Amino acid sequence: MMKDVLSSINLEHLQALRDFIDKMEDYKSRESGVLMPQTKPGQQELYPDSGLLLSSTKLAAIHQESKKDCLRLFHLLFDQFFTHEECSNSVAFGKHGKVPEGKTILDKSKVNGILTYVMSCGKCHGWKPVEKSKLKKALINKCRMRSI
After folding, report:
1. For residue 6, with 0-12 CB atoms within 10 Å meaning exposed, 13-18 middle and 19 or more buried, which class applies?
2. Among residues 10, 86, 91, 125, which one has the fewest Cβ atoms lying within 10 Å of its Cβ?
3. Segment holding 53, helix H or strand E
4. How many CA within 13 A on the CB side of residue 35?
5. Long-range contacts, stretch 36-40, CB < 8 angstroms, 24+ apart
C-alpha cells in the first residue's frame, strides 16, 4: 500500500510545495529579522566541498530516473544545474583554450563537480560506467543543442 502511495506522488507538485515552503521561510526570516542558514534542511551537496547543492528529494528522484546508468545520470544532473540561458551563451570548454566571440565557458566548478560525481557513481556496484571522454562529448553536444 505504501508503494502505491509513494508512486502516486507527482514530483512537480512536490517541487512546487518545496518552493512554497522555501518562500515562506524567507518571508518569515525577513519578518522576524532572523537570518536562515544558507543551506536549508533537506539540501545536500553532490559530494563534500563540491558547492553543488540540491534537495535530497530531487537527488533521489534523479538517481531513480537514471536507473544506475552514468550517462543518464550526467544528462539529468546537467539539466538540473545549467539553464538554457547559460548554455546558449556558453561553450563547454572552448576549442584549444579559445572561446568564440560573444560566448563564455561554462562554470568550470559545476562542470567538474558533475563529472566527478558521475565518474564516482560509475565505480559503485551495479552502475553502468561511462568513459570520461564520452561524458565530455555529451557535455559539448548538450551545449550545442541548447544554443540552437
Report:
1. exposed
2. 125
3. strand 53-55
4. 3
5. none
User: Does pLDDT of 108 surpass 80?
Assistant: yes
In this structure, the chain runs to a length of 148
* pLDDT the model gives residue 29: 57
Q: What angle do CA 58, 108, 120 make, to 5 degrees?
A: 55
| Domain extents in the chain | 1-36, 38-147
Domain 38-147 has CATH 2.50.20: no
Rg of the chain in Å (alpha carbons): 18
Interval 93-103: pLDDT, tens: 766 667 777 77
What 3-state class would DSSP assign to 93?
coil
The 10s digit of each residue's pLDDT in 48-87 is 888 888 888 888 899 999 999 999 999 999 989 988 888 7
Give the mean pLDDT of the chain: 80
